Amino acid sequence: MKVFSYWSGTLTWMEQLSIASILSTGHELTIYSYEPNALRGSVPCKVADARELLDNSALDDLRRARPYSFSNLLRLEGLDQELGTWLDLDIVMVKSLPGDAHLFGWESQRQVCNAVLRFPRECLAFQAYLKLCREQPNSNGK
To answer: Of these four, 7, 52, 80, 92, which has the most CB atoms within 10 Å of its CB?
Structure first.
């Protein structure tokens, strides 16, 4: 099963543990980065240029000012391009992911988190979430 994520900067032990756990459970991992050459050779998985997902220099301000909004948009664009299941690189896996069409992480008993995320493209909730995140960069922070 394909898994994708994003990273910027130096990998710590946490991200390295996450990567090792994803690969050890049999998943194919691609890490997207705006500095892919900095990661290549330091991780045992595929590294791709994040510009394949979001190549808009206007997003630089969003990435710096509101990284949470930026990462939401990046993960949803990847899901829209059917890159696989999104996993944040602080997730440590102990077994393989289920093959269900919808997959969410849990923040608490009442709240879903998007550190683990899979939607089929045709899902109406996914399309609404994607639309909201695509409009957010144009809101100038309001």
So the answer is: 7
The CA angle 33-15-22, to the nearest 5 degrees, is 95
**Centroid of chain to Cα 139:** 22
> How many helical (H) and strand (E) elements, i.e. helices and strands, does the chain have?
5, 6
The three-state (H, E, C) secondary structure of 27-57, written as one string: CEEEEEECCHHHHCCCCCCEEEEHHHCCCCC
Task: Give yes or no for residue 138 having a pLDDT over 80.
Answer: no
pLDDT of res. 87: 97
> What does DSSP say about strands 112-118 and 85-87: parallel, antiparallel, or unpaired?
antiparallel
Q: Which helix (H) or strand (E) holds 3?
A: strand 2-6
Question: Per-residue pLDDT tens for 41-69?
Answer: 899 999 999 988 887 665 666 666 555 67
**pTM for the predicted model, two decimal places:** 0.86
Phi/psi zone of residue 109: left (φ > 0), alpha (ψ -120 to 50 degrees), beta?
A: alpha
Nearest to 50 by CA among 20, 8, 19, 1: 8
